[in-house]
Specification:
The protein is an alpha+beta fold. Among the domains are: 192 residues, Alpha-Beta Plaits (2-Layer Sandwich), CATH 3.30.70.141; 80 residues, no CATH class. It contains 16 helices and ten strands. A four-stranded antiparallel beta sheet has the order 2-3-1-6, sandwiched between helices. Strand 4 and strand 5 form a beta hairpin. The longest helix is centred in the C-terminal third of the chain and has 28 residues. It is elongated. 41% of the residues are buried. The mean pLDDT is 91.
Length: 402
Amino acid sequence: MAVELAYALITPYSLLKSRTGGIISRLLSTDLELEAARMMAPSDEFVDRYKALLTAQSIPSPVKEALLDYCDAYLRPNNRLGISNRLLLLLFRGENAGHLLNDVAGPIGRQARGDTVRGTYGDYVLERDGRVHYFEPACLICTDPAAMADHLRLLAEFADRDGGIVTRAVRLPPDAKAETTLVILKPDNFRRGSARPGNIVDMFARTGLFIVGARVLHLTVAQAEEFYGPLRKIFIQKLRGNVARRAAEALREAFAFDIPADAVEQIGDILKGYNADHEFNGIVEYMTGRNPAKLTSPGERHMPGAERCLALLYHGEGAIEKIRDRLGTTNPREAKAGSVRSNYGDDLMRNAAHASDSVANAERERRIIGLWDDKPPCDVTLLIGLYLASLKQGPEPVPSPA
């Protein structure tokens, strides 16, 4: 069966009501790989073009009409409900990807059910005369395999123009002291179709902050070394005592005499740098899948790593402190009950997620991973372009509606 690329757009109302994490958990429950993520704030042109694609599809009434009306009500910058029109675009790759996403998203229908995204987080309520009373699809997908290429082509065309860091789509009180902070969901969360990424996003949603940026990361060794660089100095000083004690204990087993205290101190000074390098390389390997000490050529430092992370930008008043409080302390065993690290962390390294600890560090870290100025072309544009080229359906633009 052919490997396909398919998409899901988590809707503005789902983002507003903090249903994002639950929807992500359901979408990740398939055998599909999450290839890219990007926030979008659709322009009127995108909405018109997207509606034209929906109009061309064979969708039964009144579902088609409800979808078209929904695009006007929620997706436009100046929508009639006056809410933020943020969308979270997720790109998935795998065998029969479109069909699998359709199954997980579920149909739009009157029957109440909880086994699909739309059954759990969406609503489709009709009046007695058959008119739509209330409609919320939870996520937007392409239900027609023959139309998928056109949908992807449209997303590629607008991913840079309408997407990226969408703080412009968030309205805060005039006196709000807004901050934007970075969260990275670490590689452990993305193994074996785990629901953990969505569960963690759901926990961060309790801060009341807005997601304004998203990106799937395959960190290079060079990026990871720069990102975690400050830790090496910390390791040298903080772990020096442990290194000295462990070395002294090992030497006492090997020799029939005690190691004097001043010799233990000297051992710590000798070994602290080697130990710091070992611990630091372990973190880099955990985040990238590559150990810096085992690379055979300089070029490998700049190759995308095998491990997958999800970076999210949260925006709002007091964002740094709110996210750090919800995250919990570095050591999961010491993190307060109910925090992300208490629930999902294993140890000091595998502690579920990273969050910036200051505004300055948030900027530094965002620059390293490419979530600062977000220069085009973005990964969504590149991935879709390569995929369509492999189908011999190059990313030529979709005609505008008449």
